[in-house]
From TrEMBL, chains A, B, C:
It catalyses: carbamoyl phosphate + L-aspartate = N-carbamoyl-L-aspartate + phosphate + H(+). Heterododecamer (2C3:3R2) of six catalytic PyrB chains organized as two trimers (C3), and six regulatory PyrI chains organized as three dimers (R2). NCBIfam families: asp_carb_tr, PRK00856.1. Its EC number is 2.1.3.2. This is Aspartate carbamoyltransferase. The lineage of its organism: Bacteria, Bacillati, Bacillota, Clostridia, Lachnospirales. One of its GO terms (molecular function) is aspartate carbamoyltransferase activity. Carbamoyl phosphate binds at R51, T52, R101, H129, Q132, L264, P265. One of its GO terms (biological process) is 'de novo' pyrimidine nucleobase biosynthetic process.
């Protein structure tokens, strides 16, 4: 039995197969409409996350399966002091596969150790959110046609941004990848990613403070939010906040075939006027999130459709 | 693609077709049991409303479809500052149709503008609640056999009662309709309905303060709740509260074929002793609410069953 | 139409049939996979209980049916002042069967009186929790092969433990049953069970304060939690708390074929080191909980599968 704890759980070859499957699902959804008939997905969300929960649920339903679970700790038995280990043993009697979201890092790993059904880590604190990374990879591969030979701009809060760290770890396994790290000084990519991942693997990268300086030369722009609270002082925030807001003006500086991704939800870091730009693919990304989760559920359940 | 924002979105002819379909569903439910197989309804409830949510969910399940969503803002990503526009674009990737309930007036309209799937307004603040009005119309048509030639008593809080205003707007499109407006002075039907709708269309109406005075002559009695807080002073409340409580005694004054409707939930404005009276149809109304929503889902999805 | 309000609603013969059906479901789940196609279960949980709710939902889904409802009072219309009687009349229009959990004793009985669909009491305050008792009985019968000729140890809070009282009431209907009541003085089985049930029916029992004294001689050990707050003084709690924690050492005193049951969730009254002991069947119990609820749903809906 197999779980998904980290985006690196799958080898590059396995990821290729997973994304091929997702591509086939996109092309022939009807082939898969009953693949999980009689199967149940449990969504165990100890903190609310509508997007991630509904994406898993839609994926299971698209496969003809059923869904049960809870959407916040308040409506779970966690309030009665039950351990995650006990909860998953219980849920193993109710479902065939489960997706777990938990505020504590490592909770899904504990679940996996005690589970008799496949466990998907649907986000554990600031630690991992592997299905988001798989979504990002599928979006890039589907719309760009490749995962190698890419210059990727990562913009915003690179210090705390879990999705950014995961994406870097996932992309450095492909050839000829280059990063442009776009953030304020306070929110630079931390040393344990810059040195231990990029430097160690000799991945080229540059660091810039202004999005405008990076835009002309990117294949992919991955946007994340810069929260005001992250800045050390008000002055810096006021000086820099517009650097990290993508608008129509900035989009004019970007290549015609650059793609803009965002893990969502966005607040104001991408102006709504950008939404109609064909390069803005963050809502397509949501759709790819469903396809990759369908492929993931099939793979973890070892279900094959001819 | 079509949405349902207001009960007036459908012409009288379209409503007739919708109610004919609901009637066929009532008569032959098995014909429709798989009409929405493989389709998903998203219920996006930014404020709780068990009745309305479950009615939509039951409707979709009766059609063989699936349901996903959230039942309160607390378990949604609204808490992360996501706009309704972004949420609906996300949900468009997860579902084929959605029902949205929101405390802010106009929120479903914003959703509809950014949606790529049909949107049903399941109530937006004090503004509209069109599926309730469709339910009321279907109940009257099914049990009374007609939507014209009716004398309708509207009782209770006519000032703030959203369902009352919608029902008036819907009924004045039929011939030979007459209203009796039964309320305390403080809770009279507001001028923008009385003058702009009733007077402008020359719809006859009378205003009375006591339910007993209106009862002997009605075809339909539509009850709503009178909240104590609405009264200007305690004295008025004490003097009048019994005027608006329907009990067995008052029912004796009513015609043998008068129907009592109520949008529910009721608190004490209809005594439980009335429940067994065959003229009390407010629980049948709940059932008609499921049929009309089944018809609505089929119509908005443009699904036809032979 | 039939409801389940108390574990004694079914005669011993009816229980035998119910458990036979559960056994057939366990052996041939595929036979029952579509038995409830097109049917809906409503889960009306006025207080959260993940285990009980998900067990009912899994049961209905295993039968090919659908599920709708609410998981806490906050997301229900109870907050609008609707009575349980009115809610169940509404839900009768939405579903074919319902499971209700309510903090107030007797609420499911009120629901049953006004319902036009079968109602399952899924726990009402400290009163009844019949599906737990049915689960306990099925677990014992399936794994022990019998419900008579048993010496059953009941350990922990025997004063307030609802599941313990129900289990006693259910087991005294079988032949040659003997109980060992293991609890601190403060948490002894109350007189209305000891005298009115055990003494009246001449059921042999002994009372002991230490689990170790009872273990060597039991067929079944039914564990429950002892909450610190229940003790009159800190001193007693400190002196006795370890008496009621089942660990590997204590398990060595027990017969090789003794079974350990627990209604769950457990906190620390069973050490996790016991989980791998083949005699620890509290997680199997969860699975039997699904089978018995499947059998119950079929029975209350009067659905027969050949």
């Amino acid at each position: 039995m197999r779980h998904l704890m980290s985006p690196l759980d799958f080898s590059v070859e396995e990821l290729d197969k997973l994304m091929d499957l997702a591509g086939d699902i996109e092309a022939h959804p009807e082939k898969y409409a009953h693949a999980c008939a009689g199967k149940k997905l449990a969504t165990l969300f100890y903190e609310p996350s509508t997007r991630t929960r509904l994406s898993h649920e839609a994926a299971m339903m698209n496969l003809g399966g059923n869904v049960l679970g809870f959407s916040s700790a308040a409506s779970s038995s966690a309030t009665k002091g039950e351990s995650v280990a006990d909860t998953i043993r219980m849920v193993s009697c109710y479902a065939d596969i489960c997706a777990i979201r938990h505020p504590k890092e490592g909770a899904p790993m504990v679940a996996a150790q005690h589970s008799s059904i496949p466990v998907i880590n649907a986000g554990d604190g600031g630690h991992q959110h592997p299905t988001q990374t798989l979504t990002d990879l599928l979006t890039i591969r589907s719309l760009k046609g490749r995962l190698n030979n890419l210059k990727i701009g990562l913009c915003g809060d690179l210090k705390f941004g879990r999705t950014v760290h995961s994406l870097i770890n996932a992309l450095v396994r492909y050839e000829n990848i280059e990063f442009v790290l776009i953030s304020p000084e306070e929110l630079r990519l931390p040393g344990y990613v810059r040195k231990d991942v990029l430097d160690k693997k000799n991945i080229p990268y540059t660091e810039v403070e202004r999005l405008e300086d990076a835009l002309p030369d990117l294949d992919i722009l991955y946007m994340t939010r810069v929260q005001k609270e992250r800045f050390f002082n008000e002055e810096d925030y006021v000086r820099m906040k517009d650097f990290y807001i993508l608008d129509k003006g900035k989009m004019e500086l970007a290549p015609k075939d650059m793609l803009v991704l965002h893990p969502l939800p966005r607040v104001n870091e991408i102006s709504v006027e950008v939404d109609d730009d064909p390069r803005a693919v963050y809502f397509k990304q949501v759709q790819y999130g469903v396809y990759i989760r369908m492929a993931l559920i099939l793979t973890l359940l070892d279900i094959h459709v001819d």
